[in-house]
Amino acid sequence: MKLQTCSAKATHQKLTIIRNFDSPREFVWRAWTDPDLFIQWYGLSNSTLSDVKMDVKFGGGWSAIMHIPNAPEISWKAEYTDIAEPKRLVFALRNPDNLEDPYREIVTVTFEQLGGNTRMVFSQAGNLPPEQYNTDLKEGWNAFFDRLDILVKRMKGDKMD
Q1: CA-based angle 147:130:120, to the nearest 5?
Q2: Contact of 25 with 86, CB cutoff 8 Å
Q3: What angle do CA 108, 104, 69 make, to 5 degrees?
């Protein structure tokens, strides 16, 4: 799920994914905001993260390096632009090699408590080529969220509250 920039003629694109988790909202929130938990789910099943840093506050951010066998490392850098614990996270994903890149991606994640379950609505908007939203990003994020689902179910079973 490599983010690539595109020409200035690109149009604004958006991807939305809705997932329901059989775990309380606080567990799903913590998985997004605790580096020790984030490292367990963020990425593809054959990937690992290193150098994970998180400062979960307005103007703070997170960064990580993803390692995938037989592939180049992927550097992630994001800046939090809105936080409403435990309901909403908004961050700008940036090219860590060019923080002035106008083609940053805005990610909004909302968490709705539904009884003992959580509905997560994820959206990513920006100016990447449309085919990236329809294939690469959609497949990549869904693979990440499959791992997130496993983690929050395990947290629920361990009663990590």
Answers
A1: 35
A2: yes
A3: 90
Residue carrying structure tokens 């632009």: 81
CB atoms within 10 A of CB 16: 12
Sheet holding 61-67, edge to edge: 13-21, 117-126, 105-114, 88-94, 74-84, 61-67, 48-54
pTM summary value: 0.86
Q: Are strands 117-126 and 13-21 parallel, antiparallel or unpaired?
A: antiparallel
Helices and strands (H and E) in the chain: how many: 4, 7
**Residue boundaries of the structural domains of the chain:** 15-158
pLDDT at 65 over 60: yes
Whose structure tokens read 């693979």? 143
What's the CA gap between 154 and 128, in Å, rounded?
35
What is the assigned CATH class of domain 15-158? alpha beta
Segment 125-153, tens digit of pLDDT? 988 888 888 888 999 999 999 999 999 99
pLDDT (tens digit, 9 = 90+) per residue, 8-20? 444 578 999 999 9
